[in-house]
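ok trying this again, last paste got cut off
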Amino acid sequence: MSFSRVNASAATLTKNRTEGAVQPGSGMCVTCVDGCIGMCEIGKSAYRGHEVIYPQPFGVITTAAEKEYPVDYSHLNIIGGVVGAEGIEADSDKAIFPAVDLGVTFGHDGGLKFRLPWIIPGIGSTDIAKNNWEGLAIGTALAGTGLTIGENVVGMDPESVIKNGRVVDTVDLKRRVKLFQDNQRDGYGAIIVQANVEDTRLGVQEYAIDKLGVACVELKWGQGAKNIGGEVKIRDLKKAQLLYDRGYVVLPNPTDPKVIEAFKRGAFKEFERHSRVGMVTEDAFGKRVEELRAAGAKYIFLKTGAYRPYALAQAISYASKYKIDLLTVDGAGGGTGMSPWRMMNEWGIPPVELHSLLYQYAKRIADKGEHLPAIAVAGGFTFEDQIFKGLALGAPYVKLVGMARSPIAAAMVGKTIGNAIRNYDIPVYVERFGSTIDEVFVTAADLRKELGDKAFDALPAGAIGLYTYYERLAQGLRQLMAGSRKFATQYMSRDDLVCLTPEAANITGIPHIMALDKSEVDALLG
């Protein structure tokens, strides 16, 4: 059995000639013929080379792996009984699902408060993030959750002012922060500024703390989509040269006269900008944490990716020792921007395995009575059942679920529908719900009432789309939690889950469905 699709994918705009007859191991057509124009990934690589490493078309897509892992979150089911209620009086008139409290409070002083138990991890310098930031920032602020500004935003901004290798002013980062801050309600949620190697050299986080009033910063070790630094495509020669001058790895070298000549005559149309991989040491980590605290950071987060178990142990150990406020652990297969396609499919530890190891390591830290930060898990979460499973699998240590692709999708759809309404060109699929923002978006009436007409009418449709998606997730999660008799997130536990396969039970330590409650049943029935 093959878990991968090897030689053709919608992500790379490739396909097999003999789609019904493909060799499972290589992914090649069973009959590869002389004369084929090269529609598969091998064939396209024969004339476009390294361009085919990346998902396409760049800038208007988000991507995630299509590999089918042997075990995933669908191998767990949510379980419940008929007795009692935790977090509320066991009264049928009071224990109703709208009464479920989804709020989360965390941070060393309990000062971070989210209305909903999820966060958008780092979304950085890609076009897909920049072009949808209005919806993401405003929608997140209205919902009262968290949003992380990812790596390279300052370095990629042509209007950033950099003196002596340090940023002193920006346009894009300032805009991104301000969009959230101006729409934040009652102190709920947070805007977080992340940094990689290049950001740290530029002093991005110090600038964000000092000039933009950012309270939360995040150190980035990596993500689940790839094990290298971030990358984007650049179609403008002058911008490629600017990024090269700012210290980025740009391929091919945009200052080489022969490369410039080739670009101008159309031999290739895109430069690649790459970030460096970090080199983690405990001394450097501890020093950076102290630097950020000295610079005025109120909360410090760490995000790590789908690395080997020892790297995960390093992350949780350092997060404990240096009193980090939130640790995000991102499983393999996810992604929002331009991760190499094969890498996204074939690299790293998948979510269920990684999050199970995370639980084991967190428990060892907690059992010793040492500091344990709040934990967020990420890696392909999209709906309320998956959010429930992620929180329960890591309970009581996991407080949040990280999601990026699905919030981007919701913001993009909201934006697209808003544009269609303005242009009087509403698709039939949408038009059946109405022809105005108030008619199409089901949360519009409540938002208009809460914000007032003027503020509501100023909202971008992308923000309403994200807010409405979150409203659906919140109601669905409340229903699932009420069914499990858990009326606040702190009462969720691993006992709320059951495994459907022996493999999942072995990995997670959660009982197989046929072994669940066995001792209790025997005690009752004799």
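PB: full thing came through this time. The CA atoms of residues 136 and 408 lie 7 Å apart.
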